[in-house]
Amino acid sequence: MITKKDIQHIAKLARINISEEEEEKFANDLLLILDYFNSLKEVDVSNVEPSFHSVEEFLEKKLELMREDKEKLSDEQLNEKLVSSALDRKEKYIKIKNVL
Fold first, then answer.
1. CA gap 57, 62 in Å, rounded
2. pLDDT tens across 74-94, in order?
C-alpha cells in the first residue's frame, strides 16, 4: 500500500508541489502502475531466449558496424589552425574591431 508519506517523498524527489487532492490521485495512479508490473510477473517466459541487444545484426557484424578511429587535432593544433586562417591577427590572437 502506498501511503501519503510515500507520495510526498516522491513529489519531493521530483521537486514538484502537490495538493492533498493530487496526493490521492497520484497514489491511485501509482497503485495501477504497480498492479500492472505485478501482472507481468505472471507471464510465462520460460521458452523465450534472452536478448542482450535489440539488433541481432550488431552482434553478428559488430566490427563492420563500428566506425574507424580517426586522429583528432589537439587543442593547440586547432588553435593554431584557427588563428592562421583569420584575416587579421597578431601573434597567437585574432584581431577584431572594437565592440564598445
1. 8
2. 788 888 888 888 888 888 888
